[in-house]
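Lab notes, practical 5.
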Amino acid sequence: MGDAADPAGRAERLRARLEASFAPLELDIEDEGHLHAGHAGAAGGLGHFRIRIVAEAFRGVAPIVRHRRVYEAVGDLLETDIHALSIDALPPQRAPSGR
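Output from the prediction step:
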């Protein structure tokens, strides 16, 4: 279960879930909790994260379906650890260079 006092642990649980589900070529997770101070979700102790994930699993898949798959992969974390999740899910050929 999530722990409001452990934001690093939340990010690691998120990372583990995404790595297990997608074997990403790239995975960046940014904790944006500091941007949401005073927001209801932040007050409740849940995290705000931005992810950028590049994986073969997204090749030929519409963007909305990629997002749904990410949400399915992190499922219960949305109840215990995550209040908001911003997703940039890309197949390898669509990955912007220089990032």
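Observations recorded by the TA: The two ends are 32 Å apart (CA to CA). The chain has a mean pLDDT of 83.
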